[in-house]
Amino acid sequence: MKNIIKSLGKYAVLSGFLCLGASCTDQLELTPVSTITASGFWVNEDNANGALNGLYVRFRDEVSNNFFFWGEVRSETLSYGLQASEGRERYFENTLDPTFAGPTWLRLYTIIHDTNLIIKYVPEIKFNREADKNRMLAQAYTMRAFIYFTMARTWGGVPIVTNPTEGYDAETTFRERATVNEVFDLIKSDLDNALQLYPDNTLSSSKAFWSKPACNMLKGEVYLWTGKKLSGGQADFTTALQALTEASTAPGLGLLPNFDQIFRYHNKGNAEILFAVRFLDLESGSNYNSSLYIRDDEIPSSIDPELEKRIGQGGGLNRMAPSQILRSAYSQDDQRKDATFAEINIPNQDGTPRYYGSLVMKYRGFVDASGRRFIDDIIIYRYADLLLLVAEAKNALGQDPSLEINKVRKRAYGEAFENHQFVNGSTEENNEAILKERLLELAFEGKRWWDLVRFDMAFEKIPSLQNRSNQRHLELWPISLSTISLNSKIIQNPGYGN
C-alpha cells in the first residue's frame, strides 16, 4: 500500500459497493487498493479505516450532486437563472413526475451498503483502542440513520436493508417498501446505538466526520419530524429538546461573529460547524453552487462597481437563481443578505433600475489561476441551525424560544438588533417567526423544502403549490420509473400514477 493520495476521489470497490482506503484521519487520506474478497479484507484496523474513508467519499458524491435538490430546490427560494435551466424548473415549479423524478435513491443504498459492511465486520476486528472501534461503529450507525432519514422525508417508506448484499439473492435483494413508521423505528434505533458507542462528546477536529454532538443534532431533527409528521407529539418534542440541548454542550461550539466567514474555503471546520462534507483543493468536482453563480460574460458592463467587486471573477453557470420572494425577505440591515446572494440591477435609459439577475454568494469558493473553484465544504449541521431547532422544540412544548432566536438575530443585525429583537408570542406566531428565521439564516443550505414540509407550510409558502392543497401527495417525491423497473416489488407513491 503506497503512494498515499490526499484525495477523496481515489478508491476501489469491494463486492461491487465498498470504497477502500488506507487510514482514517481528519485529512481523509486514501490509498488506492485492489478489489479483494470480504474475508480477505476485514482483517485489521487499517482496512476498516479505509472502508470508513470510502463511506465518506461516497457520501460526498451524493451531497455534492443531490442533497440540495432533495432538501431545497422545490421550495420558494429558487427561480430561473440567466442560463438555460435544463429541466431544473421542474423542481421549483413542482411538476415532477415518474418520468422526470429527480435524483433517485439508488446510490443512497450504496452508502447504506457501506455502513452495513462496517456494522457487520468491524466488531470482529482487533483495534489498538476499543474507543476507536466504537467511534467507527457509531459513525456507521449515524450515517445509516441520516441516509434513511433523507429517504423517508423524500419518498416516505422505502425498502429497509440492514445487512450487506454480498452476492445475488433475489429473495433478499428485491424488497418491498417498508412503512414510513418502520423506517423511522430503524432510524431511532440506529441513533440510540450510535450514541451509546461514541466514547466522548467532542467534535471531529475537521468537522468532516460524524460525532456525538452531530448525532444528537440529527436525533433532535428526527424527533421534531416525527413529533409533527407522525403524531409523536409532546413525547417526541421532549426527546428532541433533550438531544439538541446535549448537542449544544460540545466544547468549542459557538456562533462566528461574521456570518460570511462560516462558508469560506479558508475557514473550513470553524467553530460554528458540527458536521460538514469536506472538499479539498486538487480534487475533481465542485459543490452545487457552481450552478448558482454567474459567468464572467454574463456580468453586465453597467453593473455597480462595488457590486462587481463583491462578485469578483465569475464562474459556473447561473442555471437557477435566488427568487424574488427570497431576495425581498431580508431587511437592509441584515448582514446575512449580502453574504447569501447578490442582486444585479442595471439602469434603464431613463436611469431607473431594472432587475437583471441574481446569484448565490454562499459556497462561492475562491479564485486561482484556473478560475473560480467551488470547493467550499458543504455544511450539514451548524450551531445557528441547532439554536433554531431548539427554539422550534421549545415552542412545540409551550416554552419561550426567545433566547435562541435572539442569539441568531444578534449576530445578523449587530448594532441594529434592538429593532429586530424577538418577543415571545403565541405558538402560531412563534412558529411563523422561527420558520422565517430559518429561511434567512439557512437559505441555500439544503434545508428549506424539508422545513416547509415539517411545519406543514409548503402549500402556503411555495407559489407553485398554492391553490393545490388537495394534492398533498406532492409533499413526497415520485419514484422514478427507472427505479421501479429495477425492482417489481416497488409501488409508486400515491398521486403519481402506477
Tell me about this structure.
- This protein has 498 residues and is mainly alpha-helical.
- Among the domains are: 176 residues, Alpha Horseshoe (Serine Threonine Protein Phosphatase 5, Tetratricopeptide repeat); 89 residues, no CATH class.
- The chain contains 18 helices and 10 strands.
- It has a two-stranded antiparallel sheet with strand order 1-2. Strands 3-5 form a two-stranded antiparallel ribbon.
- Strand 1 and strand 2 form a beta hairpin.
- Helix 2 packs antiparallel against helix 4, helix 2 runs parallel beside helix 5 and helix 13 packs antiparallel against helix 14.
- The chain is globular, with a radius of gyration of 23 Å.
- It starts with 12 loop residues before the first strand and ends in a 12-residue tail after the last helix.
Cross-sheet strand order for the largest sheet: 1-2
Quick one: biggest sheet?
A: 2 strands, antiparallel
The gyration radius over C-alpha positions equals 23 Å
Figure out the total of helices.
Answer: 18
Mean pLDDT: 90
Beta-strand percentage range: 5-15%
Secondary structure blueprint with pairings:
Layout (H helix, E strand, L loop, with lengths): L12 E2 L3 E2 L18 H4 L3 H29 L4 E3 L8 H4 L13 H16 L8 H26 L14 H4 L6 H18 L14 H18 L3 H15 L25 E5 L27 H7 L8 E3 L1 H6 L6 H5 E7 L5 E8 L5 E3 L2 E3 L4 E5 H14 L5 H12 L13 H16 L5 H7 L3 H4 L19 H6 L12
Antiparallel strand pairs: 1-2, 3-5, 4-10, 6-7, 8-9
Helix pairs in contact: 2-4, 2-5, 4-5, 5-7, 5-8, 7-8, 8-9, 8-13, 9-13, 13-14, 13-15
